[in-house]
Amino acid sequence: MSRTIRGLVALAVVALVATGCQRAADRSGADGSATAPATPSAAAHGAPSAAATEATGPVTYRYSEVPDVNPDLLSLDVYTPAGAAPAQGRAALVWVHGGAWQTGDKANDTLTTKAAWAAADDRVLVSVNYRLATDGPVWPEPAQDVAAALDWVLAHADQLGVDPTRIALLGHSAGAHLAAEVMADPTYLAAHSRQRTDIGCLVTLDAASYDLTDHDPTIARMVAKTFGDDPATLAQASPTLRLQAVGGPVPSTLVVTRGAADRVAGATRYAEAVTAAGPDPAQLVDAAGASHQDLNELLGAPGDQVVTPSVEAFLAGCLG
Q1: Better-predicted residue by pLDDT, 49 or 294
Q2: 104 with 98: CB under 8 angstroms?
Q3: Which of 7, 195, 196, 250 has the most CB atoms around it within 10 Å of its CB?
Q4: What is the pLDDT of residues 70-117, one digit of tens each?
Q5: Could you give the angle at which helices 261-277 and 3-18 cross, rounded to 10 degrees?
């Protein structure tokens, strides 16, 4: 482990320990026009509260349209703090769910907590669906979908009351892998005439893998089902290897890991690749003792001291 990363680990672990730091299933087209927009609250006509702790929504939008693909898989949910957005817009957190690349949904049971957490800091939460490997390999469609969702949020920032210069991408497990991959390989966003640094921050929570060529036996079946077994495909879908191959610049990045030594080592190698790509050194946190699901379920939970303080401190520095 490099001296830079060791120092970041120590600082991050100190921060982790010490920092106290109506579902409206409205469907819209990819142009951003909602068929049945949510009714704004009366507070939306006044100044935002000093402590905006309530999130309105979600309102569902389709960010892409692909023939013969379930529209729900190409949609996202937007949760907005109550009250009027500031003139410059709000920061936004774009969330990518986990589920072994095969299951999961943008509306899972942790989203209410995450939306309230985002609203408490007057941030918009956007939760993204993507195509799943339910019937066999689908790569690279899931990463392409995440990139398309990011492009849609950037293109509709004014409509959403979002400041396009203050967008963070966050993911857990398979979602963390997808988020890392889209920020590692510039081709995904380049397909939309965008670049990786159009996104301000990246937070990965215990990614399922950063290097699929490691052949981790604990995820071998899910990897084979999603990506197949072609070595070139596995390398192309590995964020660490893509960063080492193409370099940066990449967004400011927080890597939260946990578990066995080889899992932490894989996250460390990815953090080192981020640091080498630049311009900012990666921040690495080992949430020792936490379970894989803890990092998803506890993020944003009131009173959490396992993962939320480190993520909040990072976002405060990255998003302002």
Answers
A1: 294
A2: yes
A3: 250
A4: 999 999 999 999 999 999 999 999 999 999 999 999 999 899 999 999
A5: 110
Residue type, 199: I
| Nearest alpha carbon to residue 114 among 162, 79, 76 | 79
- C-alpha span between 83 and 86 (Å, rounded): 9
Question: Per-residue b/e over 230-242, b at no fewer than 16 CB within 10 Å?
Answer: eeeebebbbbbbb
In 3-state terms the chain splits into helix, strand, coil percentages (rounded to 5) of: 40, 20, 40
What would the two tokens of residue 135 be? 């019937």
Residues 309 and 254: their CA atoms lie apart, in Å, by 12
pLDDT at residue number 17: 32
Query: Would you state the pLDDT for residue 136?
Result: 80
User: 220, 226 in Cβ contact below 8 A?
Assistant: no
Residue 228 contacts residue 137 (beta carbons within 8 Å)? yes
Closest to 80 (Cα-Cα) out of 125, 127, 25: 125
Structural domains present in the chain: 3-28+51-319 (3.40.50.1820)
Cβ neighbours around 29 below 10 Å, total: 13
Contact 301, 113 (CB under 8 A): yes
